[in-house]
Amino acid sequence: MAGLIPDKIYFKIGEVAEIVGVKPHVLRYWETEFKSLKPVKSRTNQRLYRREDIEQALLIKSLLYQQGFTVSGARHQLKQNRSASNPACPSTVNLDTVIERLRCLCECLRNDIEGDDR
Q1: Residue 41 in 3-state DSSP?
Q2: Is 111 exposed, middle or buried, given 0-12, 13-18 or 19+ CB atoms closer than 10 A?
Q3: Average pLDDT, whole number, for the chain?
Q4: 70-116, pLDDT tens digit by residue?
Q5: Interacting residues of 56 by C-beta distance below 8 A, sequence separation 6+
Q6: Helix or strand (DSSP H, E) at 61
Q7: CATH fold of 2-90, please?
Q8: CA–CA distance, 5 with 49 (Å, rounded to integer)
Q9: Annotated domain spans of the chain
Q10: Among residues of the chain, what percentage have pLDDT more than 70?
């Protein structure tokens, strides 16, 4: 899942729509239904999504389109997943996401070091 997401900090709604495979209005609707999908807004009120937002949108899409959940059911499933991962702190970052980011960072550092040796 994370391999599909380019290595950037912020993404515009059109980029996210293309990555996730839905129209921008669907993402805006999901923002109203899923509180965990909250892009930041720029000074010009443009939505700026982070990698976590894209991963959340991909998960929402999977729940709705592949697994057949209703919006309400998907919302409930996301809440269960969050509380099951860490009941004391429901907003913790998924460990798989941290591991993937560390791997990417290591690869970038290796590439930088190898580039300096040339």
Answers
A1: strand
A2: exposed
A3: 84
A4: 999 999 999 888 777 655 554 455 677 777 777 777 777 777 777 65
A5: 34, 36, 37
A6: helix 51-61
A7: Multidrug-efflux Transporter Regulator; Chain: A; Domain 2 (1.10.1660)
A8: 12
A9: 2-90
A10: 84
pLDDT (average), residues 20-44: 95
Q: Kindly compute the dihedral angle of the four CA atoms of residues 90, 93, 94, 97, in this order, to the nearest 10 degrees.
A: 170
CA 7, chain centre distance (Å): 12
Can you say how many angstroms the Cα of residue 68 is from the centroid of all Cα atoms in its chain? 20
Q: Which of 93, 82, 81 is nearest to 2 (CA)?
A: 93
Q: What is the pTM of this model?
A: 0.67
Q: What is the reported pLDDT for 85?
A: 63
